[in-house]
Amino acid sequence: MEISLTGLHYVYLIFILIIIVAMVKKRDISLLCILGIFILGLLGTGSLYKSVMGVFDSFVYATRELMPTILIISVITAMSNVLVTSGINEEMIYPFRNIIKSYGVAYWVIGLVMMTLSWFFWPSPAVALIGALFLPIAKKAGLPAMGVAVAMNLFGHGIALSSDYVIQAAPKLTADAAGIEVSKVISASIPLTIVMGVVTTLAAFYMIRKDIKSGKIFIEGEVEEIVENKPECLITSGKARRFLALLIFILFALDIVVMYVAKLQGGGATAIIGGTAVFILSLIAILSYKKNSLEEITNQLVKGLQFGFKIFGIVIPVAAFFYLGDSTFIDIFGKILPQGSNGIVNDLGAALASKVPLNAIVASITSTIVGAITGLDGSGFSGISLVGSIARLFSTAINGGIETLTALGQIAGIWVGGGTIVPWALIPVAAICNVDVFELAKRNLKPVVLGLTVTTIVAMFLI
Q1: Residue 9 half-sphere exposure, CB side, CA atoms within 13 Å?
Q2: CA-to-CA distance for 70 and 290, rounded, in angstroms?
Q3: Residue 212 contacts residue 142 (beta carbons within 8 Å)
Q4: N or C: lower Cβ tally within 10 Å for the chain?
Q5: What is the pTM of this model?
Q6: Membrane spanning segments where (predicted)?
Q7: How many domains does the chain have?
Q8: Residue 137 sits in which domain range?
């Protein structure tokens, strides 16, 4: 049955376009999303007080949906902080000191370690760990600080953050907006992530290698400062630190085994990683702070929660608006959509399919462009709910490909905004490596654009 579009559909579409324009102009979109929710409620219910209530209720709904993601990031951040203060972080990296003998090995080892740690801890906690411990080793091997920064960006904020296979924050956001299971987004993203990762990292390494040989890129002498300011290790025994570092690797490896055997994905995978992180945090805090451990465990959890809500504070109002594109609208404002409606976004997709000649090529290019635009705010996460909604709209129009389009938009959004292109998202890596943030963004630009182009072409054939 064909659904006739109402004013709600057009207002929702208008606000999506306004949000995209605001992102292009590098403006914050939280207020726009709040206004969008309010106006949709006012138009649908005709009630001022219900519209005001709807804004808050949509925030509650979005927070409830995102809470597991916020908590897992908070707990892992808290655990990472304790690993740094205890000195265990150094033991986790020490074996690589004897492996890195050339700038080529340094680039790939730093990148792969950054990617691995970022899958489990997210890039933000991993930046200080990798930068402080690997930068002196890389310099000795001939890789400049800029090369270290590029490797950390592309492997951590690019490959790991955009795929997010362990914590699954990114696929959770996009899958919810697209109305599909998280596992489907993850599966569809695997070939795209491989293509994007291989193209960008190889292109970047080629450019770095070329510049090193031509003398255009030098080893900065000031990187020595990073080594001099290492924090005092609270666990003084080297044997104890090494044993605990090995234990942590074993525990997380067991988590991966359990995930595979028990087929845990999404919330289940998040829960087992989060629970393990809580126990590791508690154990290391007890050994590090001894009689003050009870207070320090609480302090570290609070710091982790502050970080988690700081990261996702901007996401909640944005997600609240885009959740309204699904059947969530009924939960917030009641049954005010036309009879037979499958949600605002699905209705728009059906209407688009009947009037606009869309195909896999147009849908793929548009998903990449919209995803890249959502990353312009420097968050990488604040707008990826939008790419899920648009993927659902386009998949309805071309009769398939929702998983691939969702994964493609997610990859584009996070590669641009998560910390590889937008200068204000590169500050942590640039600071720890002591390089110019704009020069770092400039060096990442060509490999990332090339990667997105090739990945988009591959997506066209997968739809």
Answers
A1: 19
A2: 28
A3: yes
A4: N
A5: 0.67
A6: 6-24, 31-49, 69-88, 100-122, 185-208, 243-262, 268-287, 307-325, 414-433, 445-462
A7: 1
A8: 7-462
